[in-house]
Amino acid sequence: MINTVYGNKVLKKALIYMILKAVKEGNDATDQHGRLTKKSVITPLLVASVAASFQAERRINIRELAKREGTSFSTIFCMVLKEQGLVKKSARWVPKLLLLD
Predict the structure, then answer these.
(1) Is the pTM of this model over 0.90?
(2) What is the dihedral of CA 16, 18, 20, 23, to 10 degrees?
(3) Same domain for 53 and 26
């Protein structure tokens, strides 16, 4: 009867039993989906390490750097663009603003 009213949105029997068990034990049984704090992967130590790698070798590959640092490609890519302000020009990473001296 509940399936006809709610369709696919009805809770599974096992989930209902898990919620009842949590309530009986006095644990929090509220839905925590989407309420977790966002984890920050970009730390000052990682930013400094990536900056040092780019200063040492301008022809470095982001995939290679991601493997070396142990993080994802997109994390390193966003850090390079936003934190350090570098863009890819030909085979080297160069600063966005080049000042004429």
Answers:
(1) no
(2) -140
(3) no
